[in-house]
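Re: export button greyed out
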Amino acid sequence: MIKSFDELRMQTRSRINSRQIPRVGIFCPEDNKFLDAAYRAHKDGYVVPYLLGPTDFIKQEINESDIDIGEYELIECESIESAIKTGIEMVDKGELDFLMKGFFGNHKLAKIIRNPEIGFAQNGRPLSHVGIVETSRYPKLMYITDAAVNSTMDPNTLVGIARNAAELARSLGVETPKAALLAAVEAIYPQVPVTMMEAAIAKMSDRGQIKGVDIDGPLSFDVAINKEVALSKGITNSKVAGETDIFVCPNIETANGLYKAMLMYALAESASVVVGGKCPMVSNFVLDCTECVINSLVLGSYLAMEE
Amino acid sequence: MKLKTKNGPIVSSDQIIQSARELAESGGKKMVAVAGASDTDVLGALSSAHADGILDATLFGDEAKIKKCADDGQVDISSFKIVHNSDPIAATHGAVKMASEGKADVIMKGFVSTSALLKAVLAREYDLRTDNTVSHTAVLDIPGYHKLFAMTDGGMVVKPDVDQKVQILENAVLVAKALGIKPVKVALSGAVDDSNNKDYHLTEECNQVMDKVKSRKLSDVIMYGPMTFDVAVSKENARLKKVESEVAGDADIYLVSSIEECNIIAKSLINFADTVFAGVIVGAKVPVSLVSRTDTVKNKKASVSIACLVAEYYQKQGGRK
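Workaround output, generated via the alternate export path:
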């Protein structure tokens, strides 16, 4: 089970040993942070970058930085949408192994990739965003979902994003991930719709309807992370409370705020990815530092080499 | 450490406690009426605040049980008056009545459910209702943020509609003003930062809330929404995202859209970022204080202190309408 980004880098290097280095298509990276991250991830042997977007802008940004990425392939795309489209086509043709969002908002990305015509989603699965957070305050990686793709949550979407995050956690060696459906309280109230929805999904999990993950909810954040608090609140037979891997939030605002609170104030590092599509699409937030963007590239590379 | 400038706003939880103490020393000591005082945590919080000279308290409830709770927790309650009533609901009404008669400044939740307490507070006979809904304001002292950061509502209103959001915002603004904050900068939460983004499901609602607040002519309030958490607390993030607003990086209040959002984000900061919070229920003519078992000692003291400061602010304004 991978518990840190250092470990993820080690595991990725050992996967690469016997294979070709994964090729990543980066959409519109006309910002120093993304170019720098691509350069360093390439130099360390994790990825081979392809830059998709308005090449004039990208070249200008390259010239203004000290980064020597002259050898990377630049693919002219006039807009964000056409860059994404081209990237997905190249994945279909086997010319790229995974994709990355560059210097534009997650909201824009979500709107484009959720359109069925772009051909990124897979039948019957939602696309969803997972922010993986490492902080010294918690003994394992936190998988926070969904901070960027699904704005409103119905039961079907909530099950789908929990499944997607579980699959990601399993890829990183968490055998049976523990997913907490977060709420303000543990008690289930008919007048609080989130608690009813989450309780129903937890019941699905109890009955074995959702494979490969243990799901419990509603759970408050402190119960999800702390067994003692859970016991003091009478949550005694939960497989998840106090040991949560996956923090499933009841709406996008909560996941977004939680991820950002961790990054801003809990000395956390992160990697971010959109899952559920035909290949991993790593996708950072504006506040993410260069190191976080590199983590995301390493994560994408690791996932792209999955058997 | 966050330093308070002379006559400037309160910027930390220590200063909330310090200001309540100074208020008491200068003759404005508040009386807290406790509804159902047989609760060790509540007695502990009151006793330690009393020892600091912050407040006086009157304990309503079953005298034998109250004394047992005090003994169990080794809490000194000798300076508090006990008004015996073995029926918890009757004891609750006793505390509310004391506030309604102007003999108590703050009502505090003891061993009684929040809903039973609020039912008594809002009963017409006591004339403590206002036109606003009651809501919970959590004032967070986040190490690393240069001022206090109030989040609301993580405790009372599950999924506020536009009118409730306006009222919750107004309630929180009064708390901010009680802390000396002026102007009060309010960010309306969202997953995007663009008030023209029609694709985002909360944009329209944010605009409606801001329009309604403007029509209520609240003084000294600056608003922006939707705004992400990272922009609300960081000018650098605002610059990167090209958000131009006085609120960005300097928010006093973060008004959220669901009880879950507030509760989960605040708890992540409390558990993982050493944040101390002071919480108070506002919306009635007197503030209602509550502490929970999982609160730390400092957090409990800050919560009773902020209730005293809010009570003082209402009284200086000639009472909350």
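Residues 272 and 319 of chain B are 38 Å apart (CA to CA). The button fix ships in the next patch.
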